[in-house]
Design goal:
The chain is mainly β. It has no helices and 13 strands. It is 0% helix and 59% strand. The protein is globular and about 55 Å long. The model is unreliable at 45-49 and 86-119 (pLDDT under 50).
């Protein structure tokens, strides 16, 4: 349960569209390792030729340190490639000679090799994250994560949250997180808290308060989130 993207949902690299993917998971004792490769189409970005394909490699290692404590190490590397990247083949020259008598022998220039030209505009980025989850009792969860994104602008995103969501009682949650930018121009800090009311068996109502600050100023907002299941 959360109000905004800065929440206990986990690092942003876990919430990406993967398209078509194939993966492998290996479990042994209290350790689980996963590796996946995916390909998806993404929207046009400035400087790239549309449409673009995203090839993403994802890896995760999870260790259950205690019965109620789980530590996860995640990594993701992705490459954006314009689909219109094609190889253009230039002229092909093949030397052909016939047996004939020359009065003067001069070395003939070598034929130019096969000429190939291509125009590629690849954009690659990588992320690594550490995630910790702890189950304090049947309904109370404590979690936190930090993610380092290594792209054109290096960013560090983080969040710490605690939630208490019993089935038949009023629940609550609180999350603190932010973004640290390398240039210090896009730093963000956010605090959110909410209450959860169970109305019947299929409807939940969660009013909340969000405080957000960045280089442009501060914002305080009231939010209302509902969930209804059939």
């Amino acid at each position: 349960m959360s109000l905004t993207e800065v929440s206990e949902l986990g690092p942003p690299l876990l919430n990406q569209h993967n398209g078509s993917a194939i993966g492998l998971t290996v479990r042994k004792s209290n350790i689980t390792a996963s590796l996946a490769q995916s390909m998806s189409h993404v929207e046009v970005e400035q400087g790239l030729i549309a449409p673009n394909r995203c090839f993403r490699t994802f890896g995760q290692v999870t260790c259950h340190i205690l019965r109620s404590l789980k530590l996860s190490l995640l990594g993701c590397h992705q490459v954006l490639t314009p689909s219109s990247n094609l190889h253009s083949v230039g002229a092909i020259t093949v030397p052909v000679s016939f047996l004939r008598r020359h009065t003067a022998t001069e070395p003939e220039p070598l034929a130019p090799p096969l000429e190939m030209s291509r125009s590629m505009n690849h954009v690659s980025s990588s992320s690594i994250a550490l995630k910790l989850d702890s189950l304090m009792d049947e309904s109370t969860k404590l979690g936190g994560w930090i993610e380092i994104q290594n792209s054109s602008e290096k960013q560090v995103k983080w969040s710490v949250s605690i939630t208490d969501n019993p089935e038949d009682e009023v629940g609550w949650g609180m999350s603190v997180g932010g973004v640290v930018d390398g240039s210090r121009n896009h730093d963000q800090f956010q605090v959110e808290s909410y209450l959860k009311f169970n109305i019947g068996d299929r409807f939940r109502l969660s009013p909340g308060l969000v405080y957000h600050t960045n280089s442009n100023g501060r914002t305080i907002g009231l939010m209302l989130k509902s969930h209804w299941s059939l």
